[in-house]
């Protein structure tokens, strides 16, 4: 909301600079900034076109003689199609500065001398979308004669000084000039003075055939109308037009402008309808039917049963509190007008505005709330302005569709408690004076205080709100500086967060990049990786179909990242995300939040260079990353990898479940080729770990050990085994039978193909034996080695090679 300083002066004395006022208002908790329009403008005056002639060498240019208050008229060549003799216009003289660094100089246009420029409003700083439509493609022409040579800045508000208030949602009372005057006045201990609108009693009549009805009274506590007959629609006066376009509102005509002006003045939106265009004399506020259409100038909006509409018979006049249709728009031919003022439910307005992408000045106010105590007065003010500018014949009394009496809020508290919460020792008189500056009625009985809050401050309800108001006006900068008292709590991360941070640091140390994705997915994405078999959790009011559900896996987000990068030729990726997923058991209302760690690797993990060959990512590379992570968990658990085909979007031959003591804690593998193709990604390997389950594992009791004094003995073992036997099974059996001195087993060779029996594979293992307390003999090692071989032959029918 931009607060015009000149307009503000009508309510309170203003003696401070706009910069000082913006700073002081900001210190009360409402962020503000100064706005100075047209600081760059110079040498702009009123000109009177005394004569006009065609340019001898141009079909569209005209040679104008213009009185600019000098001893002689000056000649200006103008190309505007609406330029004509006897017009009062804006003239930029020689040396004038215009917006965007434009400077006007004398010159010649096709041989004719031109000593300045006749300007349109957009050329002197008024945005084209806010200037009157009639001047969109030409120069601006004053409606009334002006003094040639006088500066145009005040006439057109070109150098208006304003305070731009960035309000919080609870302070919508400042979305009107009157509410802002109370706020700024309280800051400077000045109570605003307002003039109540009055109508000409001779024109007010009870004779009207217009009626109103509200079917959804819980959504529309107030709905009032006034019928105005015998209207002569004209242009609104210049003072009103300039205030409107400086507020970002295009002037239209005397009726529409009066409604918009009232909205800026009171913060109460007003609508105007052409009564002769209505399909019925009864206006009804009700819910729409599915498929109803709201006709707008540029498109039709299809409504549903959640939309609150205003109708006249079968005619839909508007989406309540959001947008008015053009079917009953007021124009220059309008003779009879209906003015509407209402209070519409903020949540209903907000949802409708979002649903149909129709956010505007009206919806912005209704969403945040309007003062239902001034609806009647605002409607009277709009009628008064229409009467002033349109010379009406009669004005009806208020026509009521629904009316709820506005009651002030009464808050009780105590002086001592208010001081205690602020950490101050203000006298009772000082506190009551501050509350009085805000326009609150205060009654004091000893230490007790009772404050009556006017309806314009609907954000206040409890004693804490009083404390905030006293604090704001007293000044946050004046509060004493004190150290916190009481027990101190040592800061730091929880053990679970420390584990997650450790795992994150490990991945960063391995050269992976961390990403942060949205917690919301599409329905297809939550179905794609529902490996935890969770119920889906859908938002009540999602913004888009791509963000309807809470994620049950981090993998879909990583796949999006991979696709985005590969589409831009960034193919070598190693990324991970540490975040929460949402798992909801059947029948449970709320999902559980579980910390997960997921990663994705694609492209080359070793770059091609003069001394290295490019190495693409594979299953074992990513499995190695996972094993590295698990080694730092320090869990007293046996981690195993079990091949699986259970996950539909993972490669059935290159995917494994990750288990801790037999409990599934995640998975690792390659994305299914069909899934990769559908998402436009090349070969990509992913992993996912449940950090909460890792944290719950028992911890190892780590003890330091001296380095072994005695040498180790190694043996190599080559076997031929059925291709379906897993390496893990072989390793586990070797450890089970290798004796107490077997320290390590590594596979160093895998071969299938020529000279190997069909459906078989050759595996090579390196076994390491070590006795930390004595020198091992070959006999001891050979004995254990023989037991290992015999067990493998017996259990897996291997052939020792």
UniProtKB/TrEMBL annotation:
Binds 2 magnesium ions per tetramer. It holds the Pfam family tRNA_bind. This is Phenylalanine--tRNA ligase beta subunit. Residues 38-153 form the TRNA-binding domain. CDD domains: PheRS_beta_core, tRNA_bind_bactPheRS. GO terms for biological process: phenylalanyl-tRNA aminoacylation. It catalyses: tRNA(Phe) + L-phenylalanine + ATP = L-phenylalanyl-tRNA(Phe) + AMP + diphosphate + H(+). The gene is pheT. Residues 406-481 form the B5 domain. Residues 708-801 form the FDX-ACB domain. The keyword Protease does not apply. It comes from Companilactobacillus mindensis DSM 14500. GO terms for cellular component: phenylalanine-tRNA ligase complex. Its EC number is 6.1.1.20. The keyword Nucleotide-binding applies. Its cofactor is Mg(2+). It is found in: Cytoplasm. Tetramer of two alpha and two beta subunits. It is an enzyme of class 6 (ligase). Keywords: Aminoacyl-tRNA synthetase, ATP-binding, Cytoplasm, Ligase, Magnesium, Metal-binding, Nucleotide-binding, Protein biosynthesis, RNA-binding, tRNA-binding. Belongs to the phenylalanyl-tRNA synthetase beta subunit family. Type 1 subfamily.
């Amino acid at each position: 909301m931009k607060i015009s300083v000149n307009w503000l002066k009508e309510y309170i004395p203003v003696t401070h600079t706009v910069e000082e006022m913006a700073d002081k208002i900001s210190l009360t908790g409402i962020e503000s900034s100064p706005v100075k329009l047209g600081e760059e403008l110079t040498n702009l005056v009123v000109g009177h076109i005394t004569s006009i002639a065609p340019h001898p060498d141009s079909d569209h240019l005209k040679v104008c003689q213009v009185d600019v208050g000098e001893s002689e008229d000056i000649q200006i060549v103008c190309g505007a199609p609406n330029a004509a003799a006897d017009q009062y216009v804006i003239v930029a003289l020689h040396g004038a500065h215009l917006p965007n660094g434009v400077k006007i100089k004398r010159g010649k246009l096709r041989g004719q001398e031109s000593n300045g420029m006749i300007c349109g409003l957009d050329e002197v700083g008024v945005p084209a979308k806010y200037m009157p439509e009639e001047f969109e493609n030409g120069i601006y022409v004053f409606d009334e004669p002006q003094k040639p040579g006088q500066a145009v800045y005040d006439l057109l508000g070109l150098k208006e000084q304003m305070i731009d208030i960035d309000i919080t949602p609870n302070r919508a009372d400042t979305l009107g000039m009157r509410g802002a005057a109370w706020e700024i006045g309280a800051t400077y201990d000045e109570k605003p003075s307002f003039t109540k609108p009055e109508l000409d009693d001779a024109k007010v009549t009870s004779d009207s055939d217009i009626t109103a009805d509200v079917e959804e009274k819980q959504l529309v506590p107030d709905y009032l109308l006034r019928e105005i007959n015998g209207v002569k629609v004209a242009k609104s006066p210049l003072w009103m037009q300039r205030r409107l376009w400086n507020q970002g509102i295009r002037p239209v005509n005397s009726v529409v402008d009066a409604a918009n002006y009232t909205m800026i003045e009171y913060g109460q939106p007003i609508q105007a309808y052409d009564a002769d265009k209505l399909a019925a004399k009864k206006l009804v506020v009700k819910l729409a039917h599915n498929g109803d259409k709201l006709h707008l100038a540029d498109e039709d909006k299809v409504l549903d049963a959640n939309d609150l509409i205003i109708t006249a018979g079968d005619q839909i006049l508007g989406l309540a509190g959001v947008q008015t249709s053009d079917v009953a728009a007021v124009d220059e031919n309008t003779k009879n007008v209906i003015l509407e003022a209402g209070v519409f439910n903020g949540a209903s307005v907000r949802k409708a505005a979002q649903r149909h992408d129709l956010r505007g000045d009206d919806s912005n106010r209704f969403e945040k709330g309007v003062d239902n105590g001034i609806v009647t007065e605002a409607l009277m003010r709009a009628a008064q302005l229409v009467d002033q500018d349109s010379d009406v014949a009669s004005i009806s009394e208020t026509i009521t569709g629904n009316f709820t009496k506005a009651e002030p809020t009464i808050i009780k508290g105590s002086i001592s408690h208010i001081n205690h919460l602020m950490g101050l020792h203000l006298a009772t008189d000082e506190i009551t004076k501050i509350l009085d500056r805000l326009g609150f009625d205060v009654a004091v009985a000893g230490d007790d205080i009772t404050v009556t809050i006017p309806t314009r401050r609907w954000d206040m309800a409890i004693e804490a709100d009083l404390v905030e108001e006293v604090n704001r006006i007293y000044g946050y900068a004046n509060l004493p500086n004190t150290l916190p008292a009481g027990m101190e709590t040592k800061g730091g991360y929880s053990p679970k967060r420390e584990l997650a941070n450790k795992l994150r640091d490990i991945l960063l140390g391995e050269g992976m990049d961390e990403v942060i994705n949205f917690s919301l997915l599409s329905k297809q994405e939550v179905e794609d990786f529902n490996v935890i078999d969770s119920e889906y959790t859908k938002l009540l009011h999602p913004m888009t179909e791509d963000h309807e559900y809470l994620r049950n896996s981090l993998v879909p987000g990583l796949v999006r990242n991979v696709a985005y990068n590969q589409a831009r030729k960034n193919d070598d990726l190693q990324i991970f995300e540490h975040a929460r997923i949402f798992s909801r058991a059947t029948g449970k209302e709320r999902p559980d939040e579980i910390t997960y760690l997921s990663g994705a690797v694609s492209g080359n993990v070793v770059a091609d260079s003069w001394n290295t060959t490019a190495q693409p990512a594979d299953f074992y590379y990513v499995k190695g990353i996972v094993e590295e992570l698990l080694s730092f968990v320090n869990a007293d658990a046996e981690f195993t990898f079990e091949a699986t085909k259970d996950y539909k979007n993972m490669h059935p031959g290159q995917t494994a479940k990750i288990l801790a003591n037999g409990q599934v804690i995640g998975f690792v593998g390659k994305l299914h080729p069909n899934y990769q193709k559908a998402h436009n990604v090349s070969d990509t390997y992913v992993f996912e770990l449940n950090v909460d389950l890792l944290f719950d594992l028992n911890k190892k009791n780590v003890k330091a050990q001296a380095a072994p004094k005695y040498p180790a003995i190694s043996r190599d073992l080559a076997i031929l085994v059925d291709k379906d036997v897993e390496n893990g099974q072989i390793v586990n059996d070797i450890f089970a039978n290798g004796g107490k001195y077997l320290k390590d087993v590594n596979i160093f060779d895998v071969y299938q193909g020529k000279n190997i029996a069909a459906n078989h594979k050759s595996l090579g293992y390196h076994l390491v034996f070590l006795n930390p307390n004595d020198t091992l003999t070959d006999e001891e090692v050979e004995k254990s080695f023989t037991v290992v071989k015999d067990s493998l032959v017996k259990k897996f029918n291997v052939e020792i090679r």
